[in-house]
Amino acid sequence: MVIKKIFRAASVTAALLLGLTAAARAGFYNLPPLPPPEQYGNVLMDRTSTGYGMKAVVFSHWVHRIKYTCRVCHLELDFGFQAGSSEISEKASRDGRFCGACHNGKTAFGHTKENCDKCHSGDVSYGADRFKKLLPSLPRAGFGNRINWDEALAAGLIKPKDSLRDDYQQMSFEKNLELAAEGWSSIPPALFSHKAHSQWLDCANCHPDIFNVKKKTTKHFSMARMERKEFCGVCHLTVAFPLDDCKRCHQR
Ligand code: HEC
Ligand code: HEC
Ligand code: HEC
Ligand code: HEC
Ligand code: HEC
Ligand code: HEC
Question: Does the beta carbon of 108 lie inside 6 Å of ligand 4?
């Protein structure tokens, strides 16, 4: 009886929740405050820099995702899905790893004296003017960079490379999943499209570290865990559109 009551109360809350203002919803969950759109996805990297008397490095996702998909960096180049998790050093970059796979003076500016400050800027608002020029040319979204990256890709407005190798072939897997939370009958299930995600990511970016390869077997899959950067929250808090955008996942 008591459990039934809690579930009924939960359903009412869920229905009301999707109708609330963004601020109220963010308050209901513990969602982190959102930076301005031009800083969304900018990562301040300071595992070593300031310790060596250099300013911290600022890496901007929107600058790079226009040209490369996530898998290029997060699979081929071994960057981790968490700020500070990759052991990047100047030596490794100069040997052609991490940033240096591209920042080699050919694909992009190299690790030479005149360029130190471009990366070691210490300023997360770096690139704001460029962002203002970019924004009007791309489809809009309500949150994050306020850019609908999927529509931009579908319309051919951006053409990010899938690989740094010539022989790469993308694996196709198009299964759509409806992820319904148990006990929350009034909240529309979250929709997950393998096709949409495979445009950006490799299977190995999600399986098996983030999700089991069998529907509804990933344990403790809840909003509370996602807001702590687990499951969908690995990406949908800091780089892909944020959890604040309830209806993009809980459609209908
Ligand atoms: C050009 C390379 C590059 C591309 C492309 C790229 N990333 Fe990253 N990403 C990085 C680097 C570098 C970091 C910081 C890693 C570190 O500090 O160890 C990072 C960090 C992250 C983080 C952690 C952010 C935080 O604040 O903790 C997430 C999540 C992430 N990336 C997701 C993505 C997604 C999703 C895409 C595709 C839309 C993507 N990345 C595309 C290089 C890239
Ligand atoms: C393409 C971007 C980029 C450029 C250009 C660049 N760096 Fe770095 N550098 C990094 C990154 C990323 C790190 C690791 C950041 C962190 O987490 O603190 C780093 C780390 C460092 C460190 C910390 C110790 C070490 O050896 O890793 C020093 C010192 C350093 N850079 C000096 C320089 C100098 C001097 C220049 C110019 C000659 C330069 N960097 C140019 C990206 C760059
Ligand atoms: C997969 C290739 C690739 C990797 C890896 C990469 N970059 Fe870049 N980066 C580029 C290219 C290409 C540009 C030029 C983009 C443009 O001008 O549109 C660029 C531009 C930049 C810029 C200039 C942005 C601006 O506003 O003009 C900075 C700063 C930068 N990268 C930092 C980094 C740092 C730091 C890393 C490593 C943590 C890194 N990049 C890793 C390809 C890469
Ligand atoms: C962005 C993350 C992500 C990527 C990338 C991804 N998957 Fe999944 N996959 C999921 C999620 C989430 C589930 C459901 C897990 C659950 O419910 O416990 C899933 C489930 C599956 C299932 C089980 C489906 C079922 O009905 O039981 C298979 C098979 C699968 N994925 C294969 C793949 C393959 C092959 C690729 C690469 C082409 C891939 N996945 C890429 C997130 C991803
Ligand atoms: C490894 C990173 C990653 C994970 C984990 C992830 N996503 Fe995404 N997702 C993305 C990226 C990148 C996009 C492209 C849009 C953007 O960047 O804003 C995207 C787009 C979407 C879209 C819009 C495209 C569409 O299908 O219409 C939905 C909805 C979505 N994700 C739901 C989910 C759900 C639900 C989960 C958890 C089951 C999840 N995602 C986990 C990276 C991720
Ligand atoms: C990136 C996709 C995504 C976004 C955005 C998202 N959710 Fe969810 N949500 C999910 C997934 C996946 C589940 C778990 C489904 C399952 O258990 O299989 C879930 C579960 C839930 C539940 C069930 C109980 C719980 O806490 O887990 C509620 C209620 C809910 N979401 C409300 C919201 C609200 C309100 C927002 C906006 C603030 C939101 N969601 C944004 C993907 C998302």
Answer: no
